[in-house]
Amino acid sequence: MKRLSVAGVEIPVIGLGTWKVTGPACASLVAQALQAGYRHVDTAAIYGNEVEVGEGLRASGVPREEVFVTTKIWRDNVAEGDLELAAEASLQRLGLDRVDLMLIHWPNYDIPLPGQMRALARVKERGLARAIGVSNYPTALLEEAVALCPEPLAVNQVEYHPYLSQRRVLEAVRRHGMLLTAYSPLAEGNVLRDRTIAEIARAHGATAAQVAIAWLTRQEGVIAIPKTANPQRAAENLRASAVHLTDAEAARIAALARPNGRQISPAGWVRWDPAD
What is the rounded distance in angstroms from the CA atom of residue 26 to the CA atom of residue 171? Predict the structure, then answer.
């Protein structure tokens, strides 16, 4: 599996998203996904499945040092003091002494950003995470965070798929030597019914999901974390790395972006960039 290097870590370009997957099914999914070849697992405190993700890691038989683990701190816990306690709690639930990447899950404009960045940096300085970053940060807020954080930010995890242009965010992360992790890379399943993507998939003997993931990961500095509760589908998604799109095909997929393409937008939480 191809990996991208950033801020002293190497991240597999396809990871397993675990949003909405909970309980024993989550532990089983993680274990089976790792046995199928995944080496990158994404979770978050708010998902309520960090315990099960940790159980799956241990049940898989894959050595811990081979697996890149990301978790995220909820927006209510990003003040100085609170953030470090939240990081420690995540590690306890996961059963790990550190994660590979710790992110602030969503912006919180009501808590001063300088304190958030100082606290996030201390998570790395204390060895609770090998790398740190943010999630759902539009470009203006990302610029502020980069300038304020005493440690380098590795990743901005955002919604990204063929229906949503993230041109501005991509330009910003590349400018700062960061990576973009694409969540909801299948647009909450909508790309699976897209005629253009289906046509390209048939040409490659691939699934629509594989084509959408391949389109993302062929782009400079982009990682994808498709979510599924089905172990067989997870294994299929991983094989997107074998799909090699032409430039013309990639351009056709990029042209699917639309102003109303965003699928996930909690009211009032983020001052998004203007839609392309």
Answer: 35
